[in-house]
Write the structure tokens for this entry.
Amino acid sequence: MQGNPHRAEVRLLGTAAAPGVARATAYLLQQGRSLVVRRRVDDPERELARLEVALTATRAEIAQLRADVARKLNESEAAIFDAHLLVLEDVALIDEVTKEVRRSGYNIEHCFETVAQRYIDIFAKMEDDFLRERAADIRDVTGRVLDQLLGAAPAEVGPVAGRQVVVALDLTPTETAGLHEAGVAAFVTEEGGRTSHSAIMARSLDIPAVVGVKGLMAAVGAGDTLLVDGEAGLVIVNPSAETLATYLDKEQALRTRRDRVMGEIALPDTTADGAAFGLLANIGGPEEMEDALRCHARGVGLYRTENLYLRLDAWPTEAEQFAEYAEAVRLAQGRPVTFRMLDIGGDKRLGDLSDEANPFMGYRAVRMCLERPEIFRPQLRAIVRAATFGPVHVMFPMISGIEELRKAKEIFRQVEAELAQEGIRSAAPIRLGAMIEIPSAALVAAELARECDFFSVGTNDLVQYLLAVDRGNRRVATLYDPCHPAVIRTLAGIFRAAAAAGIPAAVCGELGGDPLWAPLLLGLGAHELSMTPAALPEVRFLLRHARRDEMRALGEQALASASAAATRGLLQGFATAQQKSR
Ligand code: PEP
Ligand code: MG
């Protein structure tokens, strides 16, 4: 591909949404649909009946799409469409449309579009990133309803000629799923952020993407050459010959590296000087087990059981839980599956949980489990029954001290005895662990370690509670700094306590899958790291090429550093030195 000699290079900076570099011609996505005309109608009730038909057809269309995505991608991606179905059930929206039709006497297409646009505008102006990005979801769903009313075919991407870079104002999840099918090289959007569903999807589809690129639509014309750097969040329109040459090198280096990493995907979890470590997967349902096995996870280190509750938006029965857990254990083919007991509360709200001023410090996880045996016991029963199919571990989230651990263990033992009386016994003894994610637990880790079989450190929460920084609050996001010396020293203390009691310690928070952090965690004394399956190959590669004694030295240095900046420097220095030596 040639740089465009006629138009000057333009560089646009956006938000890096999915890594990778791609270069191809621009494909400007036309997102228009048939024009909605306004006309007077005689019978508003007839219009409302047409809306009912369109809503039913749209529901069926989304359900079909959901099933397709679940089959081709996975259940978590498909769950996005559950949110779409909820838009269709939004009583306030439908009420407003009904009133508009009766009040104005105009056709349903016009009234529906007017109200839908009002909703989209409200969401698009919201402060919160997550809520703002829901505007794309509403546009997607209400657009489908309009298509039904107008008798148009549902919006589709394509045909994209070969591998092109799709350029759009914003993309709906439906359109993003279509991009994958069409085999596009990358996508860039003017709107959207890292947490928009299309960005989340891009990461799991492995399509380089940059979102939130101000001025994109005005800067790009059909046929322009685009260079997309999904890591830097950079879009280069009509790159010069020099830029292309630089990027050719970068692309080549990335490809070579990726091939090397994937080439070692099945090699043992052993450091360069022969020390064993264990890499495990974090999953949220049996459908993610395939990814975990493909990336050679040694087992599941964190099974987020609350996903089933959130998916059903209700308390699932023992039978529903058993069906899901048993499938996961069977699919794991003898590898251990660590079920984390229900961790609902905090930012994961459900049903009858009351509103709290401080939900992250409120009625959450094991606090709720211990108080509500009608929820805790069926889940324990389901897990013990699933353990008849293979090795299972159980861990209790948000343990703050020894009493909670003892109580949780006692209920577990009762349930186990009850099932034994019914003739149900696990295939292997079930190991019981404590999640260490509250500072008080870290401080009494020595006592906890003597009374459980393993530790799993939830760094996502541990950092927020140690530093008193809400993990979801954008305003204090820069203060959420795991390099803070307090975090390093707390982690070292936890690992020391585990070692003294002779139990293994894993890290299942996001730090475990961070290439910069993995060597430090092992250096500080972690035995296992559990992470999203996609992160496994890179972390395995890094650790296999590092020496245990060097990681230990890194741990010592980090423990001695007085500031977060100094720790960051150490981590970066270690990564650079490793890169050079490989
Ligand atoms: C954690 O807190 O690090 C963790 C793994 O649990 P979650 O992110 O689900 O709270
Ligand atoms: Mg947690």
Q: What stands out?
A: The chain is about 50% helix and 15% strand. Residues 1-5 have pLDDT under 50 and may be disordered. Residues 302, 304, 343, 437, 458-461, 508-509 surround phosphoenolpyruvate (ligand 1) (CB under 6 Å). The longest helix spans residues 44-72.
